[in-house]
Amino acid sequence: MTLPTTGPAFYFPSIEKRYGRPINEWIDLIRSSDLTKHKQLVDWLKAEYGVGHGHATALVGYTLAGHTSWQPTDRDPS
């Protein structure tokens, strides 16, 4: 039995659909930024890429937690 996705990754399918970029591209973008603080990165994603606050928070939180990639197999099948 597959457990449902929780935490920031719960938003990843909708982020990919809405903004047209794979999650790993967002992670790489965040990791390549000179910014290091959560709020700075969230504000940057919102201003530069038009990402909504909740989605930006999920992406930044996941990345700053040390994740370097997200596996598409982690997606909720619905």
TrEMBL record:
Write down a Pfam family by its short name.
Answer: DUF4287
Question: Matching InterPro entries, A to Z?
Answer: DUF4287 (IPR025629)
Specify the protein name.
DUF4287 domain-containing protein
